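Dear Dr. H.,

I hope your travels went smoothly. While you were away I took the liberty of generating a structure for the chain from your last submission, since the lab meeting agenda had it listed for discussion. I wanted you to have the full record in hand beforehand rather than looking at slides cold. The sequence, exactly as received, is reproduced here:
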Amino acid sequence: MPTLADAIERLVAGNREYAQRAAEADPNAFVELSKGQAPEVLWIGCADSRVPETTVCHCKPGDLFVHRNIANCVHADDLNAASVVEYAVAHLKVKKVVVCGHTKCGGANAALGDADLGQTLNTWLHPVRELRRKHKAELDRLPDDDARAVRVAELNVQQSIDVLKQHPAVKKAATDRGLTVHGMIYDLGAGHLRLLEESGRKKGNGLWSPT
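The corresponding predicted structure, in token form, is as follows:
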């Protein structure tokens, strides 16, 4: 059985290989990164190990400013998420904000019921469980728990965007320079991102823009 030391050694060895390959491909890559960052996108995603945003979007270091947590939630009273949003929007001047959920999400699955997950997770997932209760009739019409979990993940992305719309930095940037916010779902089984729509919005416009 692999030991903790094995896992850490694998990370260090992997880093050395990455650094060597990156330097061979572009000798100035790390020099340029050390000068600062100017990402165009703030990515708010799930902490799930199967959804590494830079990998699934085929991006390079410096392309995405990232915040991840259990079930990609943005709560109104979460200082952690709010500070990331403020820094990305007001100081880095990102042009887009993406909230990305995914299929087979453990948080969305857990929100289908009320099992005791421990005080911290119970509190964190409470707003998602409230979504399930609010949309019970719709969810009950779906064929199975897999379909219900995907729909909860979609609703949770939409709820997070509703919270983002009220963030002062987001509101100001949307008005002043056209910042837009978009919702996506990543299909673990296919490796594809799907852009969500909101009633009244055209496909491709994301879930919210200032106009």
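Two observations you may find useful: The chain is about 50% helix and 15% strand. The domain at 39-195 is CATH 3.40.1050.10 (Beta-carbonic Anhydrase; Chain A).

With kind regards,
E. W.
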